[in-house]
Amino acid sequence: MLANRTTPVTGYSDELIVADPGGAADVHAMHGGRNVARWKCLARRRGLSGTWEAIEISTLPPATECGVHHHSRTEELYFVVSGEGELLLDGVLHTVGPGTLITNPVGTRHRLNNPGAVDLDWIVIEVISPPVAAVLTGDPGHTGRPLMRTATIIDLAADGTADLTALLSGPLREARLVTLGPGRQEELRSDDREHTLYVLAGTGRALAGATEVRLAPGTAVTLPLGSAVTLRSDGQSLRYFTASLAVPDAEDGRRATERGAA
Fold first, then answer.
1. pTM of the shown model
2. Beta strand pairing status for 65-70 and 109-113?
3. Considering only the top CATH level, what class is 17-261?
4. Terminal CA-to-CA distance of the chain, rounded, Å?
5. DSSP notation for 36-76
6. d(CA 102, CA 121)
């Protein structure tokens, strides 16, 4: 759902795209796999300035599989929220669990299955690859760097932050795991990039001008360009996953402003 819009405060819009827990659809034989998975879209390209394809949460119950597939026009980010699974990545089998981050460049092949006894939940972020974005927009400036060929597995639970500019060719910039202690806060601003976050544990509030959104496990918040939000934890720690995506025109404008100021 789209949180209520009110008068912008301090130059930023109050607009937030919010997805609450629940409401997933059943997906039979996901990508040709086994049994019934669950899937929910948290945000799509509509209403956003960046070249997002979709931000999703998927669930594999025990003995369920997301079949082998590859992406010909999108780059993809996986983040494992809970449970454990077996990821077949370009022919090599890996065990993945909470906090695992996987980058899937265009053309990589992967399969994910759940051999465990509890649900496997993971976030999927798909972004239009630079060559496709250049064609769709008619702007060769979207071409970006040469396409990456190698998928990468990162222990984000241990590292905390991942620089995505060295791992993917498109506009995804950074992924983070954040823990706000009781009563602490963090501000996100969509000046030259858009942000998306997914709450893993704890409770809190997202404040954007006169807009207030309650945060709980499973809540997702995406910030369109020009918006800002303050995230505050309640009486317990608030833990969330967040990723950012650069908007080329806005990023170029910021760099030009910085050069002029220098």
1. 0.89
2. antiparallel
3. mainly beta
4. 42
5. EEEEEEEEESTT-SS-EEEEEEEEE-TT-EEEEEE-SSEEE
6. 14
